[in-house]
Design brief:
Shape: elongated
Strand content: 15-25%
Radius of gyration: 23 Å
Order of helices and strands: EHHHHEEEEEEHE
Structural class: alpha+beta
Distance between the termini: 19 Å
Oligomer: single chain
Length: about 180
Amino acid sequence: MPSEHVTVRPVELSYTLTRQDWLDGFVAHRRRIRRPWLVPVLIVAALVGLVRSNGFRAMSATDVAVHATVGLTAVGLGLLMFRLLIGARWMYRWQVRRLMRGNPWLSEPIRATVDDTGLRLTSASRSETAAWSQYLRYIEMDQSFVLRASARLGAAVLVLPKRGLVTGDPAPLRELLETHCHQSA
């Protein structure tokens, strides 16, 4: 639906961002980043190690079984380490704690207005306006809407907690986001 046909009234939010809100933002922003190259790279590395350790000589069935087990174990441990180190929420909690500690103004009460022209955010020390072209994607989480500038890491992220909706109904905000942004899967 083109943005000029939207008749949704402005949506008002009033909230104070918490660590949990920022954690939602980090998780939402990074949860769909795929690394399809990781598994093939690990498999190739295991196979190269298998061939190099064998020295291109004929292998017995026992050698093949041992090398296959070592290769599969290496791939499994690589995937496990990737999951624990990169995909873990504890890493995001640490980042959020540092972000909040280094930027005390992030904990100020915020008043936000979302309408067809974009977003207006106001707090005690800041006032910002963002056009829809600045936030091309969004993800709806259980507790918040997370707006993203792009799907790339390091892109700007804006968290709008659902608890901050003045009316309490997320449907109008969801309709505005669906009109102006692409929903990330």
